[in-house]
Amino acid sequence: MKLNNHFLELKDSYLFSTVARKVREFQAANPDKKVYKLSIGDVTLPLAPAVIKAMHDAVEEQAHKETFRGYGPELGYDFLRSELVNYYGKRGVKLELDEIIVSDGAKSDLGNILDIIDPSNKVLIPDPVYPAYVDVNVMGGRKISTIAGNEANGFKPLPYDGLDADVIYICSPNNPTGAVYTKDELKKWVDFANSKNALIIFDAAYESFITDPTLPRSIFEIEGARTCAIEICSFSKIAGFTGTRCGYTVAPKELVFDGISVNALWNRRQSTKFNGTPYIVQRGAAAVFSDEGMKQIQENLQFYRDNAKIIKEGLNSVGVWSVGGENSPYVWARTPKGMKSWEFFDKLLNEYGVVCTPGAGFGENGEGYFRLTAFGDREVTKEAVKRVIELYK
Amino acid sequence: MKLNNHFLELKDSYLFSTVARKVREFQAANPDKKVYKLSIGDVTLPLAPAVIKAMHDAVEEQAHKETFRGYGPELGYDFLRSELVNYYGKRGVKLELDEIIVSDGAKSDLGNILDIIDPSNKVLIPDPVYPAYVDVNVMGGRKISTIAGNEANGFKPLPYDGLDADVIYICSPNNPTGAVYTKDELKKWVDFANSKNALIIFDAAYESFITDPTLPRSIFEIEGARTCAIEICSFSKIAGFTGTRCGYTVAPKELVFDGISVNALWNRRQSTKFNGTPYIVQRGAAAVFSDEGMKQIQENLQFYRDNAKIIKEGLNSVGVWSVGGENSPYVWARTPKGMKSWEFFDKLLNEYGVVCTPGAGFGENGEGYFRLTAFGDREVTKEAVKRVIELYK
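YS: structure for the whole thing
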């Protein structure tokens, strides 16, 4: 028996576990000092009351023979898929019910989607980027090239003459940079993908943070996307489902390569290697789109948006170059005086008691930058920003 | 972009969807006739009160900032893993906490485990078998050979001289046949796997149906299994979690190939392509092992076991050859007069209004057999058995 040796090519130490270890070490050495964390992308506000009510009701249904539900449809209940059709419809994106495939989260879909993609394809990944895009491709022994985000392109790389790719990852609003592609910019990627017969894997996990009505929240707002893109999205950020687990993939009917439908293959993959998202969770997810649910969710999102604004304005006040923080929960900023990311991280933690995420952990183009997140408490956010600013003075 | 063409090698029509279509057609043509279904493997009893209470409590925790839980540990909360350590410990199987990796279900694990296994391995699958074993290997373009279950071996094939395999699937109690390997028989597989440096993927989804204390409920009750086997199990059958979704994989520390740990690779796979089982669901699963939970679960299991006994005794009363029905929710029986499986299925449905699962749908060695399940209502089970017996008279 031979194991998959490509796993040995993975980088050993994962970014967030290294950050966590350094924080633990600092706290052990300084038990009396408070640590202000703006490092992780996890939400902190509880689930909305409408979601809680729907889940209590669903738990109760599972308690009685008359209403008990066993195996559900592997691809998701229609009651949730129809809410998602409406959600997209409200911003002018027309989807059919069976173009939406419900899952246990975007992270699962982003990894599992590779099952339906031949290993011979050339994969293009932006750098800096969410580390899992790279890892899942390394595990599959796939050929990866990167395209650089930097200050010149506002961390929104665009296709250029001579660029080659079969599979293209795009995350907008971006993790880690918070940069958001405009419609014109996304159109360039869609045209490029269609001209190359390439597939775009569009990660829309942060779409709910977009408030600027001119910015695209779905790649399917772009003409031509239905023949070149799938979109993977999540309830984690819109509704705080990080520990409740629900996501979905949109695979349009027109997305066909060599006569084979991506939707049909993904459907088969999920029906064979997955058995559906818990009924209780799907009821909770559907409640997000009720009138009360949507109102409650927006209050939570606004709280995080206000945090992002505090971070952004703080950095602006001392003239730090940054991107994100508007239409995104992440702010991506340049370290002072050309400091390396990890050097800055250590100084910020050890001298100021603040935890950021070092940009270099997201790829070589992240060197010299760091990420702050808007998911913290208000007082933690305010105090952390005050301290970060001190470091620049 | 090239899609994974191995998906085109999958058989188009899935067993259970064909069964469902035929039943729909019969009901449309005979709207006044009642149909008695003993075909599907889904549970019908509601979740146990202890599980319901634990899930209500967990939903409530998610409603308040002080108790809200975001991202959980990808491999499962310790509160659930320690319950599983105890559950195995009670039958003398000693496991460490991090040898148990919690997931959203056995079906996911049975498919996803192939990510860590090199495609060059030779896969051995018993026939008849749960169709997903074959499908997930076909999708990966793997070389599959089968080993025949038949009346001579009681549908419990054993290794023989000249048999070759790198990866071996074993399901005991078996789906679809209900046959259960003895310790001596499993020891033959364990010795074979160790001698060949092969991996056994042991599917223990139906272990909770075993009441005979001499029969093994885990492969880790067999000496030598920790160096050749992983075990995949589920809360679906023990506690009716088919729509609630929780399972786990046991990967012992001693399971190492070419110096690489299976536990470490599966850990990395799940940490990268999965984000944990919902907190609410894990709380429900842990409650299964409380004193009340275990008592309530056993009542449900006994109900299904009594159904199995009714089926078994009915078939015995007219001298039908069958296996299973003891220590298993499935009964696997020979059709009358050498009838083909689908011919029998059609006759049983159209003339007697009873739905079975045709054995041929589980592989070529299933031809001439059919499966009945114990998961139905009591009255449906009784009436269905009465009608099946009629067909034999």
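YS: worth flagging: Chain A touches chain B through 75 residues (CB under 8 Å).
IM: good catch. Also The longest helix of chain A spans residues 291-317.
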